[in-house]
Amino acid sequence: MAKKRDGGGLTRTQQAAKFLGVSVLAGAVLAGLALPAAGALGLAAKGSVEGFDDLPANLKTPPLSQRTTILDANGGEIAKVYSRDRTVVGLKDMSPYIQKAIVAIEDARFYQHGAVDMKGILRALNKNARSGGVSEGASTLTQQYVKNVFVEEAGNDADKVAQATQQTIGRKVRELKYAIQVEEELGKRKILQNYLNITFFGQQAYGIEAASQRYFSKHAKDLKLEEAALLAGLVQSPSRYDPVNAPEEATRRRNTVLQRMADLKDITQAQADAAAKKPIQLSYSRPKNGCITAVDGAGFFCDYIRKVFLSDKAFGKTRKARVKRWNQGGMTIRTTLDPQTQKSIQTSMSKHVYEDDPVAAAGAIVEPGTGRILGMGQSRPYGFGKTETTMNLSVERNMGGGAGYQTGSTFKPVVAAAALEQGTSPYQKYSSPYRMRYPSPVQTCNGEWTGKGSAQNENKTEVGPYGMKEATAKSVNTYFVQLISEIGICPAVKMAQSMGIERADGKKLRQVPSMALGGQEMSPLTMAAGYATFANGGRYCSPVAIESITDARGRAMKVPQSSCRTAMSKQTADTINTLLKGVVEDGTGKQAGLQGRDSAGKTGTTDSRYAAWFVGYTPNASGAVWVGDPQHTTKMYNITIGGVLHEKVYGADTPGPIWRDAMTGALAGKPAPALPTIPINDPGTDQGDDGKGHGDGKGQGRDKPGRGGHDKPGHGWHVPGFPDILGGGSGGW
Start and end of every Glycosyl transferase family domain (predicted)? Predict the structure, then answer.
């Protein structure tokens, strides 16, 4: 056994290599660099031994980057993603033919020499000297493996790749030094296995398993003789001998490999001749990399998985570390995506909104109580075409989405929940005039809001007094303006935060009265998860997309978990269920109601019809659908969407049916539990008084809504920054 000197000196093998440095190592450098021998020996000798001493003692072999497979909740494949398409396998999973072929054509004396092939070096030096140029190199298979390790470690950094492959003496010395160490530590069989897993075979295939799948659609262990010879021949020049684009060159190269195998007695001459007569028969599979290959519109969800991985510290303390781990790959990621739900929401999107329509649609469905994202759909496909996009319209900006969209009246239940938590009765009445100024001042979390903004209802016939149930069903704007003015803005802000409802652009909620009417921008995923709080008895659970991850060795990795918290009492949640059931049963959301199961929800349409929403839920699924222009420039008047002409777009007539069809398909064959509710009498019955004097429908003193001349033009009610956001009306707000 070779021994090291005290103090970590060179082994006997390394000492021998160093001793030969002046005469042979220089030649190895020259031969490996494919440089002419004449005139360069002195340069090689000078500095080679010194540099050899200064190099680190251990070769750092990075884990090989491999493909990552993303699966749905049932184990079905969503997509494969990779920096390099590779699947690492052992020698037992490689055909004996490929093992013999690669050695025969790349390093015939592999099993006879050490890290450096002295005989090969001398032969190459002699041949190159006689030719006065470069006709032969002498890198061993071990040296090639070491060079590939340097390239692998460089990743996608072009500068580092150039350094790893540069034709310099210094680089060659590093390669030789590490090759000696590798030979001692790994042994021949392990080196061969590693080489066949790391090397590039063209057509984006790294390693023999990926190459076998790419060219022949089979595992490496099943390669036939002629197939193995073809792949072994690719290593020298994957582009020149590419059987897809240069079949004649590939055939000649394959036959060269076959003859070399026969000369070395790896196969008989008869076997070589028979294999050489066979035409190349490929079963080529095109590279399928990335979320663009996902089916049923799951490309956006696939990309969301990548964003989750790169943003969560569970996968690395820094973003740089997470990016490196993602590119390393080799993972199997099982997600929360339910294939039935995904197919249903995407089918509904495509049915109701065409990809070339002037507006788009997006939506998400989550599971109450777990936060699991079950589906994520979009009318514009994932891609780079004219009607395609890679922007995920269902999520917030930092996860690949945009700045979000004003939610309109779908924010009103948040205000109602805040009021109920403050002790407001569901029988609370307000005068609810057709048009009114925002009461001022209004209490905020850190002071008071003062201003002169105004709000109005959709129809002039909508004049109160209204109680909470009827105001919610009809989506009466002025009712909710009066409600938030009485309870203050801060409770509504805190309720939204407790329900996970935050702005899509990452900014803090603006504490203004118009927030009651949905004047701030949210994402569909945020709204779906927020409404799931009502279905879950008042407990909010943050959205999660990943169930589990295993690495290339099958070891489980830590994944982020949903974080659940109580946002409101169960009584408040059940009361909101009652209010929102009324919306789909007798209110603005009738067109969105589900058949044969309890559902609840809310319509929403913004000022000038830039956006329309429906957000609703059952006990086992909560979904949000948005329709509008991602650029916030198209007003949805006299517009054709999905082949249907709309004079005005409402939350009920476009997002509502999308939600209905998506949820119907998603829940088909699944249980239909009842939503827990609180009885609330309808208007006109004996509602009584709530004990606070709020049952008389006269408004609340200082607000004095609807008094005098507010319908006159030029009164100056609208103040920039406080839009006149519409809502309510029988048209489906």
Answer: 77-261
